[in-house]
Amino acid sequence: MILTNIESVPGKKIIEHYGLVSGSTVRARHVFSDMVAGFKNVVGGELKGYTQLLNDSRKQAIQRMIEQAEQLGANAIINARFSTSSIAQGAAELYVYGTAVKIQNIE
Predict the structure, then answer these.
(1) Rounded to whole angstroms, how far apart are CA atoms 36 and 25?
(2) Overall number of domains in the chain
(3) Which domain holds residue 26?
(4) To which H or E segment does residue 66 belong?
(5) Among 18, 87, 100, 31, which residue's Cα sits nearest to residue 57?
(6) CATH number at residue 8
(7) Which tens digits make up the pLDDT trace of 12-29?
(8) Fewer CB within 10 Å of terminal CB in the chain, N or C?
(9) Strand, helix or coil at 1?
């Protein structure tokens, strides 16, 4: 599956358009990560627990979007975008969406 954040795939021609596909995940922070984050706010530095949480969330949301596109028969997703929103205190949704298409080489 080709995944891009632009409106086309260079060197490819869109031959089918399947529409919007998306994937999401809702994650809650871990109490230990919150304690480390509080300490890091004082001394500074990367919040590695949160970084890993976001990386895992992005991967899961992307995988869910890809599975939806594959069910439609797509071989590419164009114009992919990410969005986040707070669901409850300590929990957030990571949402990814794009346009499922079928592409082929330009002849």
Answers:
(1) 23
(2) 1
(3) 2-105
(4) helix 48-72
(5) 87
(6) 3.30.110.70
(7) 999 999 999 999 999 886
(8) C
(9) coil
